[in-house]
Write a structure and sequence with these properties.
There is one protein chain. Helices cover 35% and strands 16% of the residues. By secondary structure, the chain is an alpha/beta fold. It has 2 domains: 28-262, Aspartate Aminotransferase, domain 2; 265-364, Aspartate Aminotransferase, domain 1. Helix 1 (21-29) crosses helix 7 (247-262), helix 3 (80-92) packs across helix 4 (106-115) and helix 8 runs parallel beside helix 10 (348-365). The chain binds pyridoxal-5'-phosphate. Pyridoxal-5'-phosphate binds at residues 15, 80-82, 107, 155, 159, 178, 180-181, 199, 202.
Length: 366
């Protein structure tokens, strides 16, 4: 095989992660001379008419893809999902109030840690002691909710632990969800949520952009000391341009939304995502070398951690997989092992090649 300059490896990176090749090709084609204007899109004012059109089209396409009702604002912010750990608290509560949190992995635990700086956290359920291999039941969550809690926060897909909720928790308060690694992966009902947030660099676009989808009746509850750029209401009123937004990430995410619509939308990509993850989990389950510790019902369709029975083979597995063009399979440093992130932009064929490689590796080292 000749490695031309356009060679694209199979990229299983957890984030920043794979982007659709067609999107990168289009971005490259219009990089120097965007829209016939003799400049790139990242070299113009965010307040110029052509950029405002790019921004509005991206929002409209996201609204179409996710079926976002009109009574929700869509914000294109910065600071990553990590800043939202604080933003949701400063926007939805006052200092003397409390909020409920579910801890199902490393990201929800980080959200708890940040929230504790600003309010009292009611930790309604945690699977930490059991190793983060499943999610609590609706009944366990409900039993510990307090009527004083201002919202319920959870993470539908734990990117590091590969643990996903197989249901949407119910509560008599706004539901706040960190969708960073599973937004646009399968259909959801936006009206189930008060706030949905997601860093772009997993399943949407390049790093630097954070999507926040917030019910409009939650826009005017921010604390007086909430920084303006973090204030949902102020950002919504300013079309997310209170200050300079991440214009290139916004543009590129817009191209990803167009690509997703061309693929048939979220329903169509969800079918492929389920095929991909089933193929990989069944390869893991039917082998003697590989294993995945997550309860079957809570296995992520986006992030698939797996462990080799003989850990001394880890380095060899990574070396050979890279040589084969299967990149970034090393598990997160906190949990070890391997992890294949198989976001929307990772094609079915890439997962087929991974499964084939895993099988051959097992035969060689059995
Ligand atoms: C990656 C990730 C984050 C952190 O995102 P940043 O953009 O780096 O702040 C938070 N939550 C989840 C679920 C993630 O996957």
């Amino acid at each position: 095989m000749s490695v031309a300059s356009d060679f694209r490896a199979d990229n299983f990176s957890a984030g920043p992660a794979s982007l659709p090749t067609a999107v990168l090709e289009r971005a490259r084609a219009e990089l120097l001379n965007w829209d016939g204007r003799g400049v790139s899109v990242m070299e113009i004012s965010h307040r110029s008419k052509p950029f405002i059109e790019v921004a509005a089209r991206a929002e409209q396409n996201l609204r179409t893809l996710m079926n976002i009702p009109d009574d929700y604002a869509v914000l294109f912010l910065q600071g990553g999902a990590s800043l939202q750990f604080s933003s949701v608290v400063l926007n939805l509560t006052q200092a003397d109030q409390s909020a409920a949190y579910v801890d199902t992995g490393i990201w929800s635990a980080k959200a708890v840690k940040e929230a504790k700086k600003y309010l009292s956290v009611n930790l309604v359920a945690s699977t930490k002691e059991a190793g983060y291999h499943s999610v609590p039941t609706q009944a366990q969550i409900a039993a510990n909710l307090s009527s004083d809690d201002q919202f319920l926060h959870y993470c539908p897909n734990e990117t590091i632990n590969g643990v996903a909720f197989d249901y949407v928790p119910k509560a008599d308060m706004p539901l706040v969800a960190d969708f960073s690694s599973v937004i646009l992966a399968e259909p959801i009902q936006v009206s189930d949520f008060g706030v949905i947030y997601a860093g772009a660099q997993k399943n949407v676009g390049p790093a630097g952009l954070t999507l926040v989808i917030v019910k409009r009746d939650l826009l005017d509850k921010a604390r007086d000391n909430c920084p303006a750029v973090m204030n949902y209401g102020l950002q919504a009123a300013a079309d997310s341009m209170l200050n300079t937004p991440a214009t290139y990430s916004w543009y590129l995410s817009g191209l990803v939304f167009e690509w997703l619509i061309e693929q048939g939308g979220v329903d169509a990509i969800a079918k492929i995502n389920h095929q991909k993850s089933q193929m990989l989990y069944s390869a893991i389950d039917s082998s003697k070398l590989y294993s995945n510790p997550v309860a079957i019902a809570n296995r992520s369709i986006m992030n698939v951690p797996f462990y080799l029975a003989d850990e001394s083979l880890n380095a060899e597995f990574l070396r050979q997989s890279e040589e084969t063009g299967l990149l970034h399979l090393k598990g997160h440093r906190t949990v070890g092992g391997m992890r294949a992130s198989i976001y929307n932009a990772v094609p079915l064929e890439a997962v087929e090649r991974l499964v084939q490689f895993m099988h051959e590796f097992e035969l060689k080292h059995a």
